[in-house]
Each structure stands twice: as C-alpha cells, then as structure tokens.
C-alpha cells in the first residue's frame, strides 16, 4: 500500500517546500536536493513524475498490506544514491543523519530533540533498488523538458 507522499505533516517537521539550502556550499548534494524540492512543489512536474513511479513500482500490486516507503522517499534516496555515486552504507547514513536530506524526505523533526523516522538498511536496499537507471533517465528527461520552459 504505497502512497505518493505523507499528506499529514508531523508536529515539528520542516515542510519540504520550506527547506532552506546553503548558498555557498560546494558540495554536490544541495543542488540535487534543491532540484528535488522543485519537483515536489511544482504540481505539473510532480504529477508526471509520480505517474511514472506508480507505473513502475505500484502497478499491478494490491492496495493492502504494510505501508512501505512513500514513492517520494524512494525517489529522493535513489536520486541521492546516483548523484553521489555512493554505496548502500553511505546512503543509509545520509538518509538517517543528513539534515537537508531528511528535510527533503519529509521526516526531519527538530522539536523536542527527537530523531524522527529512521530508515533501516535493508528497507533502503529493497525500496531504492525498485528504481532502475531507465526510470531515472525518463524522470531526467521530464525535468530537463520542464527546465527549458523556465
């Protein structure tokens, strides 16, 4: 029973659209996360990308059972993995301890010092591996086409 993303924001969580990025960072991750934020807040692009994800991941599956990772979380982690050209161990660390990534995932909570939702190593592998390079290329084409309009 996968959904696009969690509709209800958790108390103390930073909204994905309100995430602030360092402007002077030379790291490769903040621009990737900023692009993901743009995908999330742009309704037309968001709709097209989620349709691709649903056709690849959810199509033909029952709508019952455990919740599983949201399609948004799978997309973010797959994009981060490919952008950083990293292994599963580093991806787990980034998903659980990098504040910007957690804000874009929609799980970072700053209130009361709680860690919030934590992603298990095997859960990351099982879900992120559902997105292959072909699907990422299709998503990249949609983003590039939309970027040309800007």
Entry keywords:
150 residues; mainly alpha; 7 helices; 57% helix; globular
Number of domains: 1
Oligomer: single chain
Biggest sheet statistics: none
Radius of gyration: 15 Å
- Structural class category: mainly alpha
Mean pLDDT comes to 85
State the separation between the terminal residues, measured CA to CA.
Answer: 35 Å
Helix content: 55-70%
Overall description:
- By secondary structure, the chain is mainly α.
- The chain has one domain (24-149).
- It is 57% helix and 0% strand.
- The chain contains seven helices and no strands.
- It has helices spanning 29-41, 43-58, 71-84, 88-97, 99-105, 121-128, 133-149.
- α1 runs antiparallel to α3, α2 packs antiparallel against α7 (133-149) and α4 packs across α5 (99-105).
Offer a quick outline of the entry:
This protein is mainly alpha-helical and 150 residues long. It contains seven helices and no strands.
How are the SSEs ordered, and which strands pair?
Elements: H1 29-41, H2 43-58, H3 71-84, H4 88-97, H5 99-105, H6 121-128, H7 133-149
Helix pairs in contact: 1-3, 2-7, 4-5
